[in-house]
Specification:
Radius of gyration: 21 Å
Strand content: 5-15%
CATH superfamily of the largest domain: NAD(P)-binding Rossmann-like Domain
Order of helices and strands: EHEHEHEHEHEEHEHHHHHH
Strand order of the largest sheet: 3-2-1-4-5-6-7-8
Distance between the termini: 36 Å
Number of strands: 8
CATH class of the largest domain: Alpha Beta
CATH topology of the largest domain: Rossmann fold
Largest sheet: 8 strands, mixed
Length: about 270
């Protein structure tokens, strides 16, 4: 079990903080959790918030852990990994949550045959509701994938995909919360236009999206079937749906995901 291992985060930003909170809530001992960050104020906050080991340098963290999570901005990953590779113990599992950085790039930066798992969570990790996809590098075996799944499951469900589909994952669920925020904002604005107070409109819009998502996940029914259940003949819902179809909502969302996937591929080159 991963609870027996020491887990360290290279980078202590929002995603690392969310994962630390999730691991602690799932019973991981704080004395087995480590984190570094370049910002002294952030390090102080992390120490006060989580009571985990907050180290001043990356090499010390690399030498101390069994699982190292790379939570850095993509352009920093190669240089930082090259700098700590020599400090990593034999067989340390490296999990990267850096967008657009492939397993081959990670392995080349490490310069050693260490198991690497690439992961793409999203910002809902902050509330323990992330959607995360993982894929294996050349040296990652099933036991390494299981370790990665256990760690990442602390902030939400995890699915495994081939690496060639990671740009699609990034475009759909990695960037997806921003699409949902825009839809919630637009619905709330529409409610205000119809006379609702803004706080009520925003709460109703957000809760409606949450409830609809839970219905899909918990019932296992296709969204189209659930949609039909609330669409009565000549009713209010079908009148609204006709407008959304005329506005090509499906097509707009499809083009948005495709644009994000292309951008992810550009970042990987």
């Amino acid at each position: 079990m991963t609870g027996e291992y020491k887990i360290g985060f290279l980078g202590g930003g929002a995603m690392a903080g969310a994962m630390l909170a999730g691991l602690l809530q799932n019973g991981f001992a704080p004395e087995r959790l480590y984190v570094t960050d370049i910002d002294e104020n952030r390090r102080r906050w992390l120490a006060e918030q989580f009571a985990v080991h907050v180290l001043p340098d990356n090499a010390s963290l690399a030498a101390a852990v069994d699982i190292m999570i790379v939570a850095l901005k993509p352009h920093l990953v190669a240089g930082v990994l090259a700098g700590v590779a020599g400090s990593l113990g034999e067989g340390v599992l490296v999990i990267s949550i850096a967008a657009g950085v492939g397993t081959q790039q990670l392995e080349e930066a490490l310069g050693r045959p260490l198991p690497v798992v690439r992961a793409m969570p999203n910002t809902a990790a902050l509330v323990g509701a992330a959607a995360t996809a993982v894929c294996a590098g050349r040296y990652a075996q099933e036991q390494h994938m299981e370790m990665a799944r256990q760690v990442l499951a602390a902030v939400g469900p995890v699915v495994e995909v081939p690496e060639n589909l990671m740009p699609a994952v990034t475009a759909l669920s990695g960037s997806g919360p921003a699409y949902m925020f825009l839809i919630i904002e637009a619905l709330a604005d529409a409610g205000v236009a119809q006379g609702l107070p803004r706080p009520a409109a925003l709460q109703l819009a957000a809760q409606t999206m949450l409830g609809a998502a839970q219905l899909v996940l918990k019932t296992g029914q296709h969204p189209a079937a659930l949609k039909d259940q609330v669409t009565t003949p000549a009713g209010t819902t079908i009148a609204a749906l006709q407008v959304l179809e005329e506005g090509a909502l499906r097509g707009v969302l499809g083009r948005a995901v495709a644009a994000a996937a292309r951008r992810c591929l550009d970042l990987e080159k």
